[in-house]
Write a structure and sequence with these properties.
The protein is of the alpha+beta class. It contains six helices and eight strands, in the order ββαααβββαβαββα. The longest helix has 18 residues. 32% of the residues are buried. The structure holds coenzyme A. The site of coenzyme A (COA) has 21 residues, from strand 5, helix 4 and helix 5.
Length: 179
């Protein structure tokens, strides 16, 4: 089954091997790595290659995973957005990372709305979608707010960080953002 999600300016499709290089390039940017890598510093190429392999492997193991985000206008790979639930994760998350060359265009919320619609359709019993966000990551908090998530007060500890859980409940979310 081919999975393809189209939004106004973007196309989302499952991450594939050809996306590993642009993904490494995105993650090697210190601004992007700040809240995504242990220690807040960019990891070396080999570590980022392994991380990208885990995103591809998530699809194999779970049958779902991050979507690559492609810009319709240029066809460029511009980020990854979508469902993420590795072992030990608190719940099914919608995550987002956009290449720094495209920040500020509203791509993350646009892609996330497409992805969360797909998630709620794929998992009819899922009551809520969460996002795990560093308390200092204001860019990501802005995305969460734009897609109707609120901070729940729950904390998830990972890599020694205390991370906030943001969430939105299924029915009100679908009423506001459902396609
Ligand atoms: C968080 C992220 C995905 C937002 O993507 P985006 O497509 O730029 O989203 P938006 O355009 O809606 O911008 C979100 C906020 O980022 C900030 N922002 C936008 N452009 C920016 C820029 N060029 N430089 C710094 N911050 C910027 C603004 O605060 C903006 O909120 P606002 O629209 O209310 O002003 C992106 O910043 C990113 O990939 N960050 C690194 C990875 C990461 O932290 N992911 C989230 C992990 S929980």
């Amino acid at each position: 089954m081919t999975i393809r999600i189209e939004t106004e300016r973007l196309v989302l499709r499952p991450m594939e091997p050809a996306d590993v290089e642009p993904h490494i390039a995105m993650m090697r940017n210190p601004a992007t790595a700040r809240y995504l890598a242990p220690g807040g510093e960019p990891r070396d190429r080999a570590d980022e290659w392994r991380a990208a392999a885990s995103y591809l492997g998530h699809w194999q193991i779970r049958g779902f995973g991050f979507f690559s985000v492609l810009e319709k206008e240029t066809g460029d790979w511009v980020g990854r957005v979508g469902p993420w639930m590795p072992d030990g994760w608190p719940a099914l998350e919608c995550g987002w990372s956009i290449d720094a060359s495209r920040w500020g265009k509203g791509y993350a919320p646009e892609a996330a709305i497409g992805a969360v619609n797909w998630i709620f359709e794929r998992f009819p019993d899922l009551d809520r979608i969460i996002s795990v966000i560093d308390p200092e990551n204001t860019n990501s908090q802005a995305v969460a707010k734009k897609i109707g998530e609120t901070k729940t007060g729950e904390i998830f500890e990972f890599w020694g960080y205390k991370l906030d859980i943001w969430a939105a409940d299924r029915e009100p979310w679908l009423q506001q953002f459902g396609r």
